[in-house]
Every structure is written in C-alpha cells, then in structure tokens.
Amino acid sequence: MKQKEITLNSLLNEDTIDLNMLNSEEVGNDHLATSMNTPLRADAFEMDDETKIQKIEQHFQSIMEIMGLDLTDDSLKGTPHRVAKMYIKEIFSGLNPANKPKIALFDNKYKYNQMLVEKDITFYSNCEHHFVPIFGKAHLAYISSGKVIGLSKLNRIVQYFAKRPQVQERLTVQIATELKKVLNTEDVAVVIDAKHLCVSSRGIQDTNASTVTSFYGGKFQNAGVKEEFLQYIQLKTEL
Ligand SMILES: [Zn+2]
C-alpha cells in the first residue's frame, strides 16, 4: 500500500497557512487546508436544526431535479429529506459545539505513568472539497499527567471531529488539540491512516493510496517514545 505521511506539528501553532499563491480551485483539488479551525461563520448556529433540515431538503430536491431525476418515483421521493436529516443529525453533526462529547476525567489511581494507546478507532468523515467520504483508522496515545480519561471518550472525540466536512490534516490537529486540552498535557500523539474516496472513486482513481497524518506532542517527540507508540500500532512509516 502506498502511503504519504504528513507530520503536522509545525502547523499547530499557525492558525492560517499561507495559501496566497494558490487560487481556491487549486486549494480544493490538492486537498489543502487553509486553516486548522473549521471555517465556520459567526452565525452558524442561529438557525435551529429543524429549519436547516427543511432548507437543505428543498435545495437537495432542486439539485436532483436539475439532474433530471423524477422525484415522483417512489424510490427517490424521500431522498431530499433523508439526505438533509443525515447531514444535520449524523454525518455533519460535529459542526455544532452543542454535540461535543462531555469529558469526565478520573484520578490516575493505579499511578500508571506509561503511555496509553487506543488504536484502530474506525471513523467516517467527508472531504470538504468534494463532499465524498474519507474513512480510516485513528490511533491515539497519551501519557497521563495525573488524570485519565474513559477509553470510550477517546473514541467519541475522534467521531465528533470526523463528523464535519474535513481535510485529514485538520482532523488530526483538531483531535490532538482537544486531547491536550482535556488531558492537560502536551504528551499526546495522533496518527490517522485514511482513504479518500475523492482520490479512489473519481479524479486520479488510485484505489491503493492511503494518506497518513501524524501529530507528536511533548514526550512523543522523543524518538524512542515515538517508536514505542508506532510499534504498538504496528504502522511502520518513514519518519
Ligand atoms: Zn476531496
């Protein structure tokens, strides 16, 4: 399997990447992220979910009609509403901060001070440039600073940030930033290995390519610690 790895530490402290040299079409075609924050307008959540679903339904119906589809057909009739509901309630529900998982931490009673690795977290996201799926595995690790997190919460953090129109680099950094914040430590690592349907099912149609992105914070920048983590997840990448 071909993999290209992108390490994102250098991007984390820069809110904006200088893409002035590129026009928006090139940015989208090359799947570059312009910002580590999801580009949202200030009024993004003034409209309630039900109104959003209604409006998207109308627009999606127009798209289907423009393409010449017969919406009186029983199989297609319900599609605009299904798509609208799926967008708001499921696959893009992570845009809304109200859906952010509540994280409870526990005292590290066992004084476990080694790295904790949660690997092979399956996620489904969508490319913000084509609105087709990105899916793969996320591998997370941290070294406790005195508190520990419920394992299912690591999974929930991944799912929350995946349920947005995304680029893989931003997904990686958003997960790492959230882990650092909730665990109150710099010692976190995130590796994401994913396939992009916009690469395999259209465009260049490369079905074997997968993209690896990584973030190594604090102690994980130490070569030995990083190697231990990569051995646990058994992902041998050129670093
Ligand atoms: Zn794409």
Automatic annotation (TrEMBL):
State the superkingdom. Answer: Bacteria
Q: What is its EC number?
A: 3.5.4.16
- Where on this chain does Zn(2+) bind? 127, 130, 198
Named from the GO MF annotations, one term is: GTP cyclohydrolase I activity
Question: What single Pfam family name could you report for this chain, choosing any that match?
Answer: GTP_cyclohydroI
All residue ranges annotated as the GTP cyclohydrolase I domain in the record: 56-233
This protein's pathway: Cofactor biosynthesis; 7,8-dihydroneopterin triphosphate biosynthesis; 7,8-dihydroneopterin triphosphate from GTP: step 1/1
PROSITE patterns found in the cross-reference section = GTP_CYCLOHYDROL_1_1 (PS00859), GTP_CYCLOHYDROL_1_2 (PS00860)
Q: Which InterPro entries match?
A: GTP-CH-I_C/QueF (IPR043133), GTP-CH-I_N (IPR043134), GTP_CycHdrlase_I (IPR001474), GTP_CycHdrlase_I_CS (IPR018234), GTP_CycHdrlase_I_dom (IPR020602)
Q: Which reaction does it catalyse?
A: GTP + H2O = 7,8-dihydroneopterin 3'-triphosphate + formate + H(+)
**Keyword Nucleotide-binding (UniProt):** yes
Keyword annotations? GTP-binding, Hydrolase, Metal-binding, Nucleotide-binding, One-carbon metabolism, Zinc
Q: Which family does it belong to?
A: Belongs to the GTP cyclohydrolase I family.
> How does this chain assemble?
Homopolymer.
What NCBIfam families does UniProt report for this protein, alphabetically? folE, PRK09347.1-1, PRK09347.1-2, PRK09347.1-3
What is the name listed in the Swiss-Prot or TrEMBL entry for this protein?
Answer: GTP cyclohydrolase 1
Classification lineage: Bacteria, Pseudomonadati, Bacteroidota, Chitinophagia, Chitinophagales
